[in-house]
Specification:
This protein has about 800 residues and is of the alpha+beta class.
Length: about 800
C-alpha cells in the first residue's frame, strides 16, 4: 500500500514538470539558406495541430544582416502564432518580433539578423484541429521588397514618362505663343513627383544592399539597376524640359512688361547654368529671344532708381543680366556697366548701414539688459565694438553717372549714413564718459554710499542708459538708510535715528522716484511709528524704574525731581504727517511724564515712607519725615490721604483740632539740623472746633515726651508760644502750666480765645538736645472754672 502511494506521488510530480508547449521538429530539417520557399513537413505529411494545444518550432539563425524569415500559411486563421528570439516554455517575459507582412492573413514576415542562434515560432492557441500547411523562406530584405514592388514600380514609370517630341520640336515646329505652358508644366510636375517617389523606394532598397551585390549578375539586382537608370534618365529629361518651358513662358509673358522680364533674369541665367545638355536648336532659340530683350534692362533700372524714394536695397538682377549677356554672346554698353557698379555699391552701403543699425541696437540692448551693476571695465568691450563700427561705416556715395546723378535715394542713403555715424559718435562719447564714471561709482559702492552714487548718476543725466544699469540702486539706498535708522533705534541713539528718518523722508533724489516712493513712504511711516513707540516706551520705563529705585530715598529728595528720568528720553521734532499729530503725541508723552513726576512718584514715595516713618520713628525718622515733606512740595495730585500724610510730617503745617476732649497725636520734627543735638522744634495746631459760643475759648493740653519736659519744673521747657501770631507768656491772663511727672508731663495753655470762623494757629517752639521725631498728644477743651 505504501509503495503504491509513493509511485502515485512521484508520478504527479513528474506530470507537474511536463512542458506546456510541444516542439514541432520538421523532417527534413530547417535550413537558413536562401533556397526559395520550402514546405514544412513531418516526414511525408504535414503536422497535425490539436485544438487547445500549444506548440513551438525552432528556426535557425542567419549569418548575415538584413534578412527576412517569410512564412506562407494556408490556414493561418485557425491558430495564433508569433516569433521570438527567447522562449522558455512560455515562462517569463516574451518579446514578440513584429510581423511586417503586407498580407497578414496568409503570410508572416519577420526581420532576423546575425548574432541570434535560433528563433522560436510559437503557436499559443489552436482554435480547431487542423493540418499545418506552411512554407518558409529565408530571403534578403532588399530582394523581398524589390520583388514585391517591381511590377508596380515599372507600371508607375511607364505611366509617368513624357513624350519628348514637343521638346525636340522647339526651334522648328514649336509654337511658343500658343503653347499651353501652364498645363504642360503642371503635368510635368505631377509626373516628376511620382517618379521621385519611385526613386525614394529604390534608394531605401539600395540602403540595405549587401556589400557583395555590386557588379553582381543577380537577376533581381540587374532588374533594379535597369529600373533605376530608366527613372534617373526620365527625371533628368523632365527637369530639362520643364526648365526650357519656364524660360519660354516667362519670356512670352514679360513682353511689353520690362519689370517682369527683369524679375525673371535669375531664372533665365539658371537655364544656362543648370548643367543640362540642351538640344542646339533649343539653345539657339532661347538665346535669340533673350538677347533681343537685354537692351531693356538698363533703361528700366534708370527709371526705377530715379523714382526710388527711400534708402532701401535696390532689387538687383543686374548680375544675372550680365551673365545673360555672356551666355547670349552679346556685349553690354557702358551705361549698363555703370548701373551695375552703382547698384552694387548702393546695395553694399545700404546693407552696411542696416548692419551698423543692428549692431547699434544689439550693443544698446546688451548694455540695457545688464542685470547687475557694471564692473570698472564693463564699457571697454562696447567702446571697442563702436570704434570698429565707426571705422567700418561706409562713406557717403559720391558723384554718379548722369542718368542717376540726382536720384533721391542717393541723398537719402547719404543722410542715413551721416545719421548712423552721428549716433555711433554720440554713443561712443557717452560710453567713454560712463567708463570714467563707473570706477567712481564702484568706489562709493564699496563704502555703501549709495546716495553719493545716485547723485553722481543724476548729475550725469544725459547718460540716459546709466539708471538702467543701476536698477536696484534705489532699493539699496533705501535699505542702507533703513539700516542706519534701525541701528540707531537699536542703540537708542534717538537724535541720529530721527535725523536719518528725516533725511529719508526728505530724500527725493532717486533714479526712479515714482517707482520707489511707495516703498520709501511705507518705511518712513513704519520707523516713524517705531521711533515714537521706542521713545515713549523707554521714557516710561526709565521713569518707572527711577521711581522704583528711589522710592526709599530720604536724602536730597528735591534733587530727584530735577533728574532727567522725569523727562522724555528725547524730544521728538520730526513728523511725516501733520504737526498737530506730532504735537498730540508729544503732549501725550509729556503728560504721562508729568503725572509720573508730580503725582505717581511723590504719592507712592509718601505712602511708602509714611508707613516706614510711623512704624519706626527712631530709624531715620527725621529724614523720612522731611523726605515726605520734600515729596509733598512736588505733589500735584488730589489724594486726600497723601496730603494728610504731608501735613502730618511738615512742622510748618498746622494740624487741625476739630473735636473737644479728644487727644490728637502729632509728630514733631526739628526745624534745625544738628545731628549731635541742640535742635529747635516746632509744631502748629489749627483749632477748628465747632462752637455755638460767639467768642469760643479753650484750654489746650499738650502731653509732652519725658525727654522734653523732664526739667520743666526748673526751667521753661518751651522757647516760644504764639496764638495767631500773638506771643503768649505765662503771665497776665495766660497760664502755661509746667509739665511734670505728677501730671504725666502734660502742659496746659489757657485760656485761648479763638475766632469762630477762620484759622486759629497755635505755634509752639522748643529746643531739645536730641535729633529725633517726638510724638505729642494735644487736646482742646472748654476752660475749667477754678476757684482762686
Amino acid at each position: 500500500m505504501k509503495l503504491k502511494i509513493f509511485i502515485l506521488i512521484v508520478s504527479l510530480a513528474f506530470l507537474s514538470r511536463c512542458a506546456n508547449y510541444k516542439q514541432l521538429q520538421p523532417d527534413p530539417e530547417l535550413t537558413p539558406m536562401e533556397l526559395g520557399y520550402i514546405e514544412i513537413k513531418d516526414g511525408d505529411e504535414p503536422f497535425e495541430l490539436e485544438k487547445d494545444k500549444k506548440y513551438y518550432m525552432v528556426f535557425p539563425g542567419v549569418t548575415q544582416a538584413n534578412f527576412y524569415l517569410v512564412l506562407d500559411i494556408t490556414n493561418k486563421s485557425f491558430f495564433n502564432s508569433y516569433l521570438t528570439d527567447t522562449f522558455d516554455d512560455g515562462k517569463g517575459r516574451i518579446i514578440q518580433i513584429p510581423d511586417e507582412s503586407d498580407d497578414p492573413g496568409n503570410q508572416s514576415v519577420y526581420s532576423v539578423t546575425s548574432g541570434v542562434m535560433q528563433y522560436y515560432w510559437v503557436i499559443d492557441l489552436v482554435k480547431n484541429d487542423v493540418l499545418l500547411e506552411m512554407n518558409y523562406r529565408y530571403v534578403p530584405k532588399w530582394r523581398f521588397k524589390f520583388e514585391n514592388q517591381y511590377e508596380k514600380l515599372k507600371a508607375t514609370v511607364l505611366k509617368n514618362s513624357i513624350d519628348q517630341s514637343a521638346y525636340l520640336g522647339i526651334g522648328e515646329s514649336f509654337n511658343i505663343h500658343d503653347f499651353n505652358y501652364a498645363g504642360e508644366l503642371k503635368d510635368i510636375e505631377q509626373k516628376t513627383a511620382e517618379l521621385k517617389k519611385c526613386q525614394e523606394v529604390l534608394k531605401e532598397i539600395e540602403s540595405i544592399f549587401p556589400q557583395n551585390i555590386l557588379n553582381s549578375t543577380d537577376k533581381a539586382y540587374l532588374d533594379y539597376m535597369e529600373l533605376k537608370k530608366q527613372i534617373d534618365e526620365e527625371l533628368l529629361f523632365q527637369d530639362k524640359y520643364a526648365s526650357t518651358l519656364k524660360v519660354l513662358k516667362l519670356e512670352v509673358e514679360s513682353r511689353g512688361k520690362t519689370h517682369k522680364f527683369v524679375e525673371a533674369l535669375p531664372e533665365f541665367a539658371r537655364f544656362f547654368e543648370s548643367g543640362h545638355t540642351h538640344d542646339l536648336k533649343v539653345l539657339t532659340m532661347v538665346k535669340t529671344l533673350l538677347a533681343d530683350r537685354l537692351d531693356e534692362v538698363a533703361p528700366h533700372y534708370v527709371r526705377q532708381i530715379n523714382a526710388k524714394q527711400d534708402a532701401t536695397v535696390i532689387e538687383n538682377n543686374l548680375d544675372s543680366a550680365k551673365k545673360l549677356y555672356q551666355h547670349c554672346g552679346k556685349t553690354p554698353d557702358q551705361e549698363f556697366l555703370n548701373l551695375t557698379d552703382f547698384v552694387t555699391e548702393f546695395n553694399k552701403k545700404v546693407d552696411a548701414v542696416w548692419a551698423a543699425k543692428k549692431s547699434l541696437e544689439e550693443i544698446s540692448n546688451a548694455v540695457g539688459s545688464q542685470d547687475r551693476m557694471p564692473g570698472n571695465t564693463f564699457f571697454t568691450e562696447y567702446i571697442s565694438k563702436l570704434s570698429k563700427l565707426e571705422y567700418n561705416l561706409p562713406k557717403p556715395i559720391g558723384s554718379q553717372p548722369g542718368s542717376v546723378r540726382n536720384a533721391t535715394c542717393i541723398r537719402l542713403l547719404n543722410k542715413e549714413i551721416d545719421k548712423v555715424r552721428q549716433r555711433i559718435s554720440s554713443l561712443l562719447s557717452n560710453y567713454r564718459e560712463a567708463e570714467r564714471l563707473v570706477p567712481q561709482l564702484n568706489a562709493y559702492k564699496e563704502q555703501k554710499d549709495y546716495q553719493a552714487m545716485r547723485r553722481l548718476i543724476k548729475q550725469n543725466s544725459h547718460l540716459t542708459f546709466m539708471p538702467g544699469l543701476y536698477k536696484n540702486l534705489d532699493q539699496l539706498s533705501i535699505d542702507a538708510q533703513t539700516n542706519k535708522i534701525k541701528n540707531a533705534l537699536r542703540s537708542q541713539d534717538w537724535p541720529v535715528a530721527e535725523s536719518n528718518l528725516r533725511d529719508l523722508h526728505m530724500d527725493r533724489d532717486f533714479l526712479n522716484y515714482s517707482a520707489i516712493a511707495g516703498t520709501k513712504n511705507r518705511i518712513v511711516s513704519m520707523y516713524e511709528d517705531s521711533l515714537y513707540t521706542n521713545v515713549n516706551r523707554i521714557s516710561r520705563q526709565r521713569a518707572q524704574q527711577f521711581m522704583n529705585d528711589n522710592i526709599n530715598t530720604v536724602n536730597k529728595v528735591q534733587e530727584l525731581y530735577d533728574n532727567a528720568a522725569f523727562l522724555p528720553v528725547y524730544d521728538l521734532t520730526f513728523t511725516s504727517g501733520s504737526q498737530a499729530d506730532l504735537d498730540r503725541k508729544v503732549s501725550a508723552l509729556n503728560e504721562f511724564m508729568r503725572q509720573i513726576r508730580e503725582e505717581e512718584f511723590p504719592e507712592k514715595s509718601i505712602k511708602h515712607l509714611y508707613n516706614e516713618f510711623t512704624s519706626d520713628l527712631s530709624t531715620q525718622g527725621v529724614y523720612k519725615g522731611r523726605a515726605i515733606v520734600a515729596h509733598g512740595k512736588n505733589y500735584k495730585g488730589k489724594d486726600a490721604a497723601t496730603w494728610q500724610r504731608i501735613v502730618e510730617c511738615d512742622p510748618y503745617s498746622a494740624k487741625k483740632l476739630t473735636e473737644v476732649k479728644n487727644y490728637r497725636k502729632i509728630f514733631v520734627l526739628p526745624v534745625t539740623t544738628h545731628s549731635a543735638g541742640g535742635n529747635e522744634y516746632l509744631f502748629k495746631l489749627n483749632i477748628q472746633i465747632p462752637s455755638e459760643a460767639k467768642f469760643p475759648v479753650y484750654d489746650v493740653n499738650v502731653k509732652l515726651p519725658k525727654t522734653v519736659a523732664v526739667n520743666a519744673s526748673a526751667a521753661q521747657w518751651f522757647e516760644e508760644i504764639k496764638m495767631n501770631g500773638e506771643l503768649i507768656k505765662n503771665e497776665g491772663r495766660y497760664t502755661v502750666t509746667s509739665p511734670t511727672a505728677s501730671n504725666n508731663y502734660e502742659c496746659q495753655i489757657t485760656p485761648l480765645r479763638v475766632n469762630k470762623t477762620g484759622d486759629n494757629i497755635l505755634e509752639i517752639r522748643f529746643k531739645s538736645g536730641s535729633f529725633q521725631v517726638f510724638e505729642v498728644s494735644v487736646m482742646a477743651q472748654p476752660p475749667i472754672i477754678r476757684k482762686n
